[in-house]
Amino acid sequence: MSRLRLKNDYLIEHALNVSILMTIFCKHLSIEKKLIEQIALGAFLHDIGKVLVPDHILNKSGKYSDNEFEEMKEHVSLGVKILEEIPAISHVVMSMVKEHHERLDGKGYPNQLTDKDISKYGRMMAIVDSYDAMTAERIYKSSMHPIQAFKNLINEAPDSYDKDLVEQFIQCLGLYPVGTLVKLNSGKLGLISRLNKSKPLHPFVRVFYNTRLRQAIAMDEIDLSKSKNNDQIDRCIKPEEFNINLMGFFKAAFIE
Q1: Which of 68, 110, 129, 229 is the most exposed place for a label (fewest CB within 10 A)?
Q2: Is the pLDDT confidence value at 254 over 60?
Q3: Same structural domain for residues 216 and 105?
Q4: What is the pTM of this model?
Q5: How many domains is the chain partitioned into structurally?
Q6: Which one-letter DSSP state was computed for residue 176?
Q7: Of 139, 173, 207, which residue sits at a domain end?
Q8: What is the pLDDT of residues 157-184, one digit of tens each?
Q9: 13 with 129, same domain?
Q10: For residue 142, how many C-alpha atoms fall within 13 Å in the half-sphere facing its CB?
Q11: Is residue 64 helix, strand or coil?
Q12: Which helix (H) or strand (E) holds 183?
């Protein structure tokens, strides 16, 4: 953890996010707890090889040259080399580190493995790693909305990603993941607070702002499947669209 944090702030954030998402995914798939612990560790360590990638490549904000990309891809074999020195590391962890950039059609790296050669955990890692990378805010790119990331994963399955696992991952997180900021057709803004498994298009929304009045309103949780005012999600938004302090509202809605 210390090596990741000292190397790059994004690395530690990404490692934690992927580990958390993989744990949630595993629980959804009813994987046993002892195995989940190994998978969570593998997810956390999947990019450990990047601590040995030169800073000028790892932190580059523009597009990589062909040579730079080849050097970046070395992080997989470098990670495997680091972990081979630790006897307690399991084959599950190693397979996840080795396979998180492999793709079912053989167009991944470093070994161009195909469908039959990639473990279930490697397939899961490919999905979760890609999802978190797409939805992360970076210096050189804006974050992608989770729904667009879901669409990208679906579009690239079954060629790159395991179609069944992509569908399970989306079902696990929900079409509108908890914490998603949405605008309702009434003009209210809110955060998705709970999922509705029987009606995924109608989650619970904790509203706190009225875009028509341009002011905060009393916080209230709405079950969209039972909304008296027929409120429905108009679209997903970013907080800067309305210049609101999302973190303040998020703490009030979910923590305080």
Answers
A1: 229
A2: no
A3: no
A4: 0.77
A5: 2
A6: S
A7: 173
A8: 999 999 999 999 998 888 888 888 899 9
A9: yes
A10: 5
A11: coil
A12: strand 181-184
